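Could you show me just one protein sequence together with its fold in token form as a worked example?
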Amino acid sequence: MRPGRRLLIIEGGAKGNARLNMELRRAFSVLQYKAGLQGRKAKIIAAGGRQRAYDIFCEELRKAGPGDRVVLLVDAEEVVSTDSRWAHVKQRRGDGWDPPKGATEDHLQFMTVVMETWLLADPEAVRAVLGSGFDPDKVPGELERIPKAEIYRLLDQGAKGGRGGYEKGRHSFRILERVDARLLAERCPSAASLFEALHR
């Protein structure tokens, strides 16, 4: 990695699905721009599966030199009950990840509980894609305490108001592109943490 390079390795997309990977990279690139990271934007790697994202992160962090910035962004999958993100993934069944050598809390960031939590932070962005069937009044106030299944239920119910059910690949990145980064940071501490980590 060239000195001063910035990488954001994201769980999401799919191996062999160029269109979906492009949509993910575009959505997160737009989000970085809206968050004021124009001069510090990270190159985005759509890693696909969760374990693959972690493996890529470990390899890129191992190769990183002074001035490089490597950040891993994954779904928390569950409501986070610890102050340490690394402790969360170490304890979580299916992960069991240890922080690689040199990794700090800043290197690991969460979309808490899932990326769709972030979409709910901006009801207008959701309605623009899913239609008027989405009712923001049904969304609890503390977004990052909503379990994964409930988040999907809220989006699916909203989509059925006129355009079929919510589909992650079909809808998610289109909504994320529209999300107001300021509103997202206000309503989701995990997003604020990511923006701060990338600003450094």
Observations:
- The radius of gyration is 16 Å.
